[in-house]
Amino acid sequence: MTFTILIVDDQAVVRAGFRTILESEPDLEIVGEAADGQEAVRLARRLRPDLVIMDVRMPVLDGIAATERLAGAGVADPVAVLVVTTFDLDEYVFSALRGGARGFLLKDVEPDELVAAVRVVAAGQGLVAPGVTRRLVAEFARTSKPPRVLEPLPALTGREHDTLVLLARGLSNVEIAQTLTVSVSTVKTHVANLLAKIGCRDRVQAIIYAYEHGVVEPGNP
After folding, report:
1. Which of 34, 143, 181, 183 supports an S-S bond with 39, CB 3.0-4.6 Å?
2. How does pLDDT run across 99-115, given as a tens digit for each residue?
3. In terms of Cα–Cα distance, which of 17, 202, 78, 72 is closest to 128?
4. Signed CA dihedral, 111, 204, 50, 44: sign only
């Protein structure tokens, strides 16, 4: 299976670097490049790539606004967006994820990690590196408003609830498995089940859900 990719970054050297890394893989095809968010939206709607690699700070239209137009709430046929940026603790990052991005990486990521992330997100899953998740959660906790319960919480099992709490704290599957004294495969099953029950497509949305619905509270370890 081949995944098609649109690269969006205002720096030509960054686009060229991503292209060189990704085009070396037989299952990844670059179908276009854009230097700003407005061009990204236009090309993504026309080319319908499996994945858009999106920078955050760009002229004309920034990556956050572009992500919302391509993958935000109310978009009938969303495009998968992977935000790759320099700004790991910038407020823009959380806004982009909340706006529909399926993943987040830093630009200093190793080439093999970039390739792996592209495949995961293009295949429809969410991905945020565990260390980045912790910083993201810390920023969300710092700026979060009181939780708002939109509807009654679904019936999670005790293990599913524990898994959601630990996931929201930024733990990886391996760390959750160690904490709960279960296998990693069991954790993956718990994650898949709880995502289905709470109606979230990936662990990024699950983190947001957990804070918004009071499953975990900002500042409470």
Report:
1. 34
2. 888 888 888 888 998 99
3. 202
4. negative
